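Re: your question from the hallway

Yes, I did run it. Sequences:
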Amino acid sequence: MTAETTSTRRPETLDRVVIRFAGDSGDGMQLAGDRFTDVSAAFGNDLATLPNFPAEIRAPAGTIAGVSSFQVHISDHDIVTPGDAPNVLVAMNPAALKANLQDMPPGSTLLVNEDSFEQRNLDKAGYQANPLEDGSLSAYRIVQVPMTSITQESTKDLGVKPRDAERSKNFFALGLLSWMYTRPIEPVIDWIDERFGSKPMVRDANLAAFKAGFHFGETAELFDHPWEVPPAQLPAGRYRNVTGNVALAYGLIAASQSSKLPIVYASYPITPASDILHELSRHKNFGVRTLQAEDEIAAIGVALGAAFAGHLGITATSGPGMDLKAETMGLAVNLELPLLIVDVQRGGPSTGLPTKTEQSDLLLAMYGRHGEAPLPVVAPRSPSNCFDTAFEAARIALKYRTPVIVLTDGYLANGAEPWLLPDVEALPDIGVPFADAPNHDGDFWPYLRDPETLARPWAIPGTPGLMHRIGGLEKQDGTGNVNYDPENHDHMVRIRAEKVARIVSDIPDVEVDDDGGRELLVLGWGSTWGSIQAAVRRVRAAGKQVAHAHLLHLNPLPSNLAGVLGNYRRVLVPEMNLGQLSRLVRAEYLVDAKSLNKVQGIPFRAATIEAKILEMLDA
Amino acid sequence: MPDEAVKLGRKDFQSDQEVRWCPGCGDYSILAAVQLLLPELDVKPENLVFVSGIGCAARFPYYMNVYGLHGIHGRAPAIATGITLARPDLDVWVVTGDGDALSIGGNHLIHSLRRNVNFTMLLFNNQIYGLTKGQYSPTSEVGKVTKSTPFGSIDHPFNPLSLALGAEATFVARTHDMDRKHMTETFRRAHAHRGSSFVEVYQNCNVFNDGAFAAVTAKEARASMLIDLKHGEPIRFGADGEQGVVLNDRGEIEVVAVAQVGEDRLLVHDEHRQDPSLAFALSRLADTPTVPTPVGVFRDVERPIYEGEVQRQLVGASEQRGPGDLAALIGSGATWEVA
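Structure:
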């Protein structure tokens, strides 16, 4: 650190802190949060983030509807959630304060931009009186900073117009937070230099505002001292910060490299899946072909066509896009071709909550097609785990020639965490051979199956002597010829189900985080992993026993799950839906699983699950 | 597998599956025309892929001894696009019908045409839903009485060629199932075109819409009712070429008696005009197959093909940044080491 970044007062050490940046959609809160996160990641903290923004790009300024926030949890130890309750709220305007105050525990710090607390903004936020003056915030530590005017003052000499200067106030806030939590400032300065290099006026204004914020913390004596959160002791290795969508895109590229099959990725823009398309479209030197299709149906059709031609066909979507893809998924089940469908779940039904998270597509993934159309389903548990899960989905799809659904969600997609970079040399080879010769008395039978996996041969166009026709009509097993025979249809329905069921012998057992207690098992899937794990740790810290199992494979379910469920007196299934895994588990294993359901568009608070666990343990 | 030196024949392109269209269906003659044409083209059977959706026409791939994918209703252009993205070297054909391409698959049709995906599309237009037993289609004439329109249909129909031209198609043609030679030559031209080739085939459904095109395609009607477009030649028809097509003062196309206006005024057909306006005007000459109807190639222009541009970007990215390095990719951006 240079001299100017070193505080003159000794910082107090914290083991963790949760900060929420909140402001208007146009205030740059996501950017400020992202920068704080990246700096903290590089500093060596463990962290988890929770971006939360409205579906409208710019809802009317100053209103509750337009509030955008970014929560980041940094720590000196292993953490798994973005934190239940912020220690600090940065509120850039009255609406941001009002929209977030309910999440702030008494005694926490409210760092507000006092310039924005004038009548017009108070009215827009629906405040009858100025909360900074009427005593209603007495339970909190309120720190008022005239962020707008200091930002304008600090950029005055640059020739920036006051209205433009105001737009740098997110960097002022970032600078102030950087002082408060003893963050190195060089990475932000470098980032501003690079990002805004082509617009010197904007660059200089942002730099001036950022430094002004840092110096303000140092000189204004708002706090007795800054704080520091030392680096976490994470497993050794090289790390980077990664969001779920980026990790997933990398996992797909890894699968492509490992299988030596180029990616054909087709999708239609939809929140929050679009970032996967954005990421993949940048990596054409990996042979990645991307196509922004005319609709969701075309997107999966293109991916399926590519699979027929021998490439790794992939599509992704969210919310209503899944409904539209159902018909083609059924065709893929019937054609028995490898195909990946990524569903970044969001709040439904219909358009629902486009930017918020939910886990309500599990039963859709399992059963949402006409006819008997089973397919494997996998779900990552954390942002970085999206890499491994995408790879696993591709492995299953290729080996068994089946469509596979990957269920991520809005929280995983946009949330970030440090990622211990995998050794890519150690990734297994998931390539499968194409058929290259006749397989039945000199003829080629496209549905003559591998006796073990039941996978059919993958003979791609361009291969001499293996010309064949496949389609959505029922076909005779073996020859693949169209066939309406009753016995054959019954056989084909069963064998397609059997093929998926047999994958159970090729997936790992579900691991149980077991402390010896036999009273309660918490069973989860997907992004609730962090919240459940945090709750379980708290319960154990309080001296009680509880186990946690988390499913990455949802179809087929791991073979040891029945035994695991039988080891505990009671089973609790927390889900961001009205009870979909619990329904599957009850139906499959006749277990009286209890549901804990919350469908609010935000991840579970660990405290909510903790309370339920304690209630069940005490019952 | 036939030896390279052995000349392929019609039989080499026939699959072992029994053809199951209704006896007398126009689809038989189209299938025959394609199977007779393919041996004349310089293509290997293993490089041919026929893709279809749903409908009577969509059964076509099952009868071809090449690679085939019988997909779902309307989606053949999307599936074919995926095949060409993966394997630009393949020779991809799409076989579709008026319901498949113009109703349920309308979106995929127009977007594949504007992208100029390199495939040959044969649209069998019989102006009726056959496989579902006789409902009106998007090309049925207004007032058509069918099972679903007992009081006559009130939907205004599409003109398939106008739609294709409006969708920026680079090759647009029309032929009919009663003239094997005309079909063969039109398909040959469509196949030779690089990019999306769109061919409307007037096809008789003898069960649900018999004789829909008889007024123009019956042998005795053809001379006076079909306007055979020929590149570089004045557009005229009739037994002795006594009728012709001119551009009138209002900028519209109309049919005239050649004797009245003189040969010099006749419109000379130019398939290669970049501007599609004249081709569009020609497509509007016949809204229903009851008036003189142009057939042949309306438009044949060059534009980069979609999968070619995709390949160009892939090659460009590899030249600029080198082949993909996975370890470098995942380790990009800010990283840090934990000891």
